[in-house]
Amino acid sequence: MTLSLSREKHKIAAAFGRAAKSYDSVASYQRATGTQLLGQLTSVLNHSQSTAPLDILDAGCGTGYFSHKLKEKGHRVTALDLSAGMLEMAKTKAVADHYLCADIESIPLAPQTFDVVFSNLSVQWCRDLNKALSELYRVTKPGGVVVFTTLAEDSLAELSSAWYSLDGYSHVNTFLSAQQIQNSCQSWRNELTLQKDTLYFSGLTELLHSLKGIGATHLTTGRKAGLMTRQRLQQLALAYPIKAQGLPLTYHTVFGVIYRD
Questions:
Q1: Cα separations (Å) of 17 from 24, 28, 121?
Q2: Is residue 44 helix, strand or coil?
Q3: 3-state class of 98 per DSSP?
Q4: Which residues, 6 or more positions from 91, have their beta carbon under 8 angstroms from its beta carbon?
Q5: Rounded CA gap, 155 and 105, in Å?
Q6: What pLDDT, in 10s, does the model give residues 195-242?
Q7: Are 187 and 158 in contact (CB under 8 A)?
Q8: How far apart are CA 117 and CA 140, in angstroms?
């Protein structure tokens, strides 16, 4: 079955597909947030005292790192991703029981299919966060839980400011504020926490490669045309802030738990 996507979603899927082979080598931030989210999920499940294998959806599975972690715990895992390239990488590793190439905003599955939905750094690519979370909620069984991470306003601010000082364009996606994310969750029982993490890089090339390698270079808002020439790279490097630890890149991460009533 061919996945029907908007032009914008096709571009996002293609960007992540191109990054599939290099993703695991540069996804340190994604790995860290997902590990923390997995810890939160474990805590929630411990409180419910559920020990039976669960049906879990990994929504936005990427190459399947966390699908594999969940499957190792004995759960039945469905790995879902918008990018066929990412899903193929997941399949080659046999990380899940089922694989589904689909859009989180329109999941082609029946309501109340999963005990748990796990989604690490995927819903920020959705056009309508409330619609995406509503879909994740819809496919979760009553008594189940949706756990997710997403990026909030001011993520990648250092890169945005450096670019803006050069040509008046951000070159970085705009993320929802923490309040907007909270508003998108207000229909359900939820717990949200905001966390600031700053990564440091030895040089600008390494920093930009970390973004390109995870498929996060596609801009969903207005963009400035032009290739990244050596001269532009040098100009950007001069404009970029530097700390004793290296070049900083800050993420504002929202960790969310939504309870399915």
A1: 13, 18, 16
A2: helix
A3: strand
A4: 99
A5: 23
A6: 999 999 999 999 988 887 555 554 555 445 456 789 999 999 999 999
A7: no
A8: 7
